[in-house]
């Protein structure tokens, strides 16, 4: 099975190379097919990688047979394998969904361009997950920025261009900060490979304490911008709400998450548990995460458009992830990664369901979407299950995250923060339930609506259903997933 | 054989989902389907209670906490049988009543679902499972509350959701903290904390109060009561069944579980939890009664009365002695039977005459003699006059208060009984003695489907008052192991 070691690189290469074949194809159907096919192949490869890891344990992979300090190195452990599987699976389902509906939001001649970008985006996200080389990661960050700008602006409307510019500027700032952080680290340690940097830091951290502090701060803030940490989230609602539905799903489910994983790798891998615990940076992350949990939800309540509500909800959910990272204990970190998984699946399902409603009814305001439950009972039903997970109904992943994050904050001695977690879940209820209630109930809301008159066909809803089923499975199998994450952390 | 105990819980779910197709197939099919659904479920329940052998089942055990675990014990059986039997009465009543409310199909789907959820609450074997069903209960009863679909209904529904979810979330906080201490949330007679040293009574007290207040929201403890009168906007069968039995009694049931199966009477005494909670309960009993005096709307008056009466039951729970708990559990059953009768009568008045307020029903006793007689008997029972069942439970509650050597408890009970008389008897008086004498009085007693449940329930009220022993022995056998 040693050939399985090549699979991670193979995934990235397949996605990158196939991307550039797409513009040569004449018919959109072939482009879609190729994109879906390559994503499916990557998914299968990632599953193989995961099986390989479960059997043989983590390994380092030399790209191009160059040894580590000089060549680029991949580190593939349990967490990386799980993330790759998550990314490719969610992306496959989203692409499958987009196959039926992409033309409604993207012009015909842009479709090949769109799928090109999606493939590149996914390739670079996977690269960020696997790579053990800081500069390599930085390159992938830049590629994701450009590709995600592309899939937002592809709709070619005024608001998209504005949102994209905002995103581009802030993201460039973010990646600039990350680059500066990397430069500091390189300066101190003379390495770009994370394992080697870690070794060097262990020797010198007493001497370069402030510099390391600055480097950690720069990386955190830079990645914070990329992944919408609370006060740096300003680009997210515009970008996520104006993009086509499938882009929104990819952006919030995957593009936000890969940088967070990188942050975890930097903080806990490059610096290491012992060193990072002494830094104030974890407290900052904890505080910002807590604020994000609350403020993201508060802002979501005030929104008038369904996609903006979901976008702000992402800010809150990312807050949970940062909260887990900031707690600075194993359980917190485990839950942060678990929440990445749970949220990726849930949020993509929510965005796709909302996209379906907007596409079918042509309306995007909450006030206009009243009574949609009668016209599209199944779509709103799937939306409801996703929302219930966000609100924290037991067994669904949202509840599991909340429960264990609470236990983790007890471990960390932060009793008060449990209040923030619970408060946030209540706030979630405040903005998700009105959508559902007004969708299904109310005499005025339902007047003139015809039962199932606007429903998507089962074929089109299938990927959405699979996402929801996957979400429930993640909740039910949470213990196994957490065990696997724990294996990866050690 | 163990999974078999899930049948009464899962069957309503399946029947409810199947109902989304079948109920639309016509009047006769609907009637037959709904009646057979609840009856079969009761039979299934009784059948399972008669099976020998292990009565516990882990549906899904992921780890010590994430453990969906069902266990049948005596307290659960009491609650399950109470709910199932009253469900059948309500089914017949609503088949007639819901005709003028419309959207019957949707109503019955959620109606059947709620039965399953209530039984799930009854048979939960740990706090986590209970919490799941507790949340589900909120979600499944929400469509019933906002059945009318008007602005007012939606507003009340939102209030109901916010209160219930808020309460559940607060209770969850307690669960998290408790789990971090005890590492187990299973229901054990005498409490899971028995083995844990109480080295931090303050923290434990906080946990207890948080859980009490959180779960107390559904039991309508003041100051978290105001969702209950607001929810009266729902159709009468919902008000009667859910807001006299299923929802509020689930809240009470959870409190019993928390007090006696999670914390344990001994622990609560040590942390003085009973003292703090008793203040709230006093306020609940008195405020409920006082507010009921002011209500013109019949259903609202009954709702405030419910708040006060629930206070009695909670009082029985938190006094932590045998007599009081017997009284509390007896009143749990008795109040359910009485209040459902009262609501059914009020609903019958509304159904026949579209009158909602007290000043409108002058002389209605002559038009609806049977209904109003039943109403009177139920009122007398709620006040606590022998030979009705209300007397029996209040007797034990007063005994419980005296066992604690505090004369204040019986005094409050008497005062509240007086207030109960003050808000219920005027209705009876107005109905029978006010209004002009008319020669040709049109008989307006409701259709047979509504009248029979009312009469039978009134019969039960008197029967339980005259022969309380069967129930009393059963409850005594529950209480023996708890206090």
Automatic annotation (TrEMBL), chain A:
Keyword flag Methyltransferase: no
Domain of life: Bacteria
InterPro entries: CPA3_Na-H_Antiporter_D, ND/Mrp_TM
Record membrane topology: Multi-pass membrane protein
PANTHER family per UniProt: NA(+)_H(+) ANTIPORTER SUBUNIT D1 (PTHR42703:SF1), NADH DEHYDROGENASE (PTHR42703)
Gene Ontology cellular component list: plasma membrane
Domain NADH:quinone oxidoreductase/Mrp antiporter transmembrane: from-to ranges: 131-427
Keywords: Cell membrane, Membrane, Transmembrane, Transmembrane helix
TM ranges: 6-24, 36-54, 74-99, 111-131, 137-155, 167-186, 212-236, 248-268, 280-302, 309-327, 333-358, 378-400, 415-441, 461-482
Protein name per Swiss-Prot or TrEMBL: Multisubunit sodium/proton antiporter MrpD subunit
Family: Belongs to the CPA3 antiporters (TC 2.A.63) subunit D family.
Subcellular compartments: Cell membrane; Membrane
Automatic annotation (TrEMBL), chain B:
Residue ranges of the TM segments: 6-24, 31-51, 75-95, 107-125, 160-183, 203-228, 240-263, 275-293, 302-320, 332-352, 364-387, 407-433, 454-475
Domain called NADH:quinone oxidoreductase/Mrp antiporter transmembrane: residue spans: 124-420
Membrane protein topology class: Multi-pass membrane protein
Subcellular location: Endomembrane system; Membrane
GO molecular function annotation: NADH dehydrogenase (ubiquinone) activity
Signal sequence annotation: none
GO biological process, one term: ATP synthesis coupled electron transport
Keywords: Membrane, Transmembrane, Transmembrane helix
Highest rank taxon of the organism: Bacteria
Domain NADH-Ubiquinone oxidoreductase (complex I) chain 5 N-terminal: start-end pairs: 66-108
GO cellular component: endomembrane system; membrane
Pfam families tied to this protein: Proton_antipo_M, Proton_antipo_N
PANTHER family: NA(+)/H(+) ANTIPORTER SUBUNIT, NA(+)_H(+) ANTIPORTER SUBUNIT A
Family: Belongs to the CPA3 antiporters (TC 2.A.63) subunit A family.
Protein name: Multisubunit sodium/proton antiporter MrpD subunit
